[in-house]
């Protein structure tokens, strides 16, 4: 056995994204104790940075020490009790995960389905709310990473509130990549992830809860079924000014990295980060369309950070992705669920949303597909360049 040295890769899949060198170097700083006063000061800064990124004044805003799926579970475990009815808007893979959470926790999931590759239809949610006046919660995915569709969270949250429901929003892929305003949109509970548009290491899930959500937690008749995710216990470590106590050993160096990635975001300005994702998406889109590749999601519902394009007829999905990886060090994503074998998911997340990545992706795809005679060649880079020249 010898040391593991990963091969050089450019990550343009559904996450993890490329990591900025400053974030990688923050990871290798010396470890200190997770109750060290200096570390506690860093934790307070981290919470402030997260509030700024999420555009919220919520006191209870912290990163769960586990990936986005654990943030999802934190929201359901704390806000839901056995017997509760939860409306879940599903337009991709992650709505089904929410359903499993609700059912495993003894709740009833009311599924409101939209086609994969489309935004959530507010009218369907309105109908479901009318048919289920006893529903307690509404859950939705802001940016569906399985298809690349964005939904109108502000409208959906307002509808849920009209019917007295609290809301859980999955912002794993949206945070840092597109507009997200927790307070302005009235979101009650939200979870995100560190490895998508925040371009940090995987394994952390920022969450935030407003007062209405905390009131629901305080009124629970039953204890939260998960010891590790129980807000009442974990906040003894993340809140408790001056009196912080051990709950679990925080992933100290990963938290240094999150602090650095949020600092980078603040230096850039969050609105500039959204605009950067949009610019590189447009260049990639024009390049792909010039080749003749088509998008799964209609333009008005498309995420800039996740581009699902149809695989040309007769092309073997896995063979192309293997070639891209081996010959170009480039990772793009396979289709998930209904999209498996039908689409590629090309990510432009965080530090991966850069001109050099867009140009590498277009030229690599042009080579591997051009050689098979299934696309127009010699036009993609010029199409992308035109977008950059106009910016
Ligand atoms: C990636 C992702 C998750 C899960 O995050 P993990 O960090 O992989 O657990 C949940 N929801 C969405 C929309 C995602 O893209």
What does this entry look like structurally?
With about 400 residues, this protein is α/β, with parallel strands linked by helices. The chain has 2 domains: about 20-265, Type I PLP-dependent aspartate aminotransferase-like (Major domain) (Aspartate Aminotransferase, domain 2, 3-Layer(aba) Sandwich); about 270-390, Aspartate Aminotransferase, domain 1 (Alpha-Beta Complex). The chain is about 45% helix and about 15% strand. The protein has helices at about 20-25, 35-55, 70-80, 95-105, 120-130, 155-160, 180-185, 210-220, 230-240, 250-270, 270-290, 315-330, 355-370, 380-390; strands at about 10, 60-65, 85-90, 110-115, 135-140, 145, 150, 165-170, 190, 205-210, 305-310, 330-335, 345. A 7-stranded mixed sheet has the order 2-10-9-8-5-3-4, with helices on both faces. Strand 3 (about 85-90), helix 4 and strand 4 (about 110-115) form a beta-alpha-beta unit. Helix 1 (about 20-25) packs antiparallel against helix 10 (about 250-270), helix 10 (about 250-270) crosses helix 11 (about 270-290) and helix 13 (about 355-370) packs antiparallel against helix 14. The radius of gyration is 21 Å and the shape is globular. The protein starts with 9 loop residues before the first strand and ends with a helix. The model has no long low-confidence stretch (mean pLDDT about 95). Pyridoxal-5'-phosphate binds near residues 68 and 141.
């Amino acid at each position: 056995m010898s040391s593991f040295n990963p091969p050089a890769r450019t990550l343009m899949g559904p996450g993890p994204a490329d990591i900025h060198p400053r974030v990688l170097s923050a990871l290798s700083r010396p470890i200190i104790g997770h109750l060290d006063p200096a570390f506690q000061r860093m934790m307070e800064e981290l919470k402030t940075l997260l509030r700024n990124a999420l555009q919220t004044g919520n006191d209870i805003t912290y990163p769960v020490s586990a990936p986005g799926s654990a943030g999802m579970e934190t929201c359901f475990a704390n806000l839901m009790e056995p017997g509760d009815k939860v409306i879940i808007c599903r337009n991709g893979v992650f709505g089904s995960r929410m359903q499993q959470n609700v059912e495993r926790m003894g709740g009833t999931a009311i599924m409101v389905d939209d086609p994969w590759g489309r935004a959530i239809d507010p009218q369907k949610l309105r109908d479901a709310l009318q048919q289920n006046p006893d529903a307690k919660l509404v859950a939705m995915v802001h940016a569906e990473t399985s298809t690349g569709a964005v939904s109108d969270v502000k409208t959906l949250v307002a509808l849920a509130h009209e019917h007295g429901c609290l809301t859980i929003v999955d912002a794993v892929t949206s945070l840092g990549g597109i507009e997200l305003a927790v307070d302005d949109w009235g979101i009650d509970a939200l979870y995100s992830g560190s490895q998508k548009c925040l371009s940090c290491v995987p394994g952390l899930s920022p969450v935030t809860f407003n007062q209405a959500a905390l009131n629901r937690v305080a009124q629970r008749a039953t204890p939260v079924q998960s010891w590790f995710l129980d807000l009442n216990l974990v906040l003894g470590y993340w809140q408790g000014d001056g009196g912080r106590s051990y709950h679990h050993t925080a992933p100290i160096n990963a938290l240094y990295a999150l602090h650095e990635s949020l600092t980078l975001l603040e230096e850039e300005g969050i609105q500039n980060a959204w605009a950067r994702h949009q610019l590189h998406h447009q260049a990639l889109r024009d390049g792909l369309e010039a080749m003749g590749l088509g998008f799964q999601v209609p333009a008005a519902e498309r995420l800039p950070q996740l581009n699902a394009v149809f695989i040309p007829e007769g092309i073997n999905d896995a063979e192309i992705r293997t070639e891209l990886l081996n010959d170009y060090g480039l990772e793009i994503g396979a289709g998930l669920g209904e999209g498996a074998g039908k689409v590629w998911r090309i990510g432009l997340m965080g530090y991966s949303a850069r001109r050099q990545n867009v140009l590498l992706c277009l030229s690599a795809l042009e080579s591997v597909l051009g050689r098979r005679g299934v696309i127009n060649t010699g036009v993609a880079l010029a199409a992308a360049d035109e977008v950059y020249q106009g910016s």
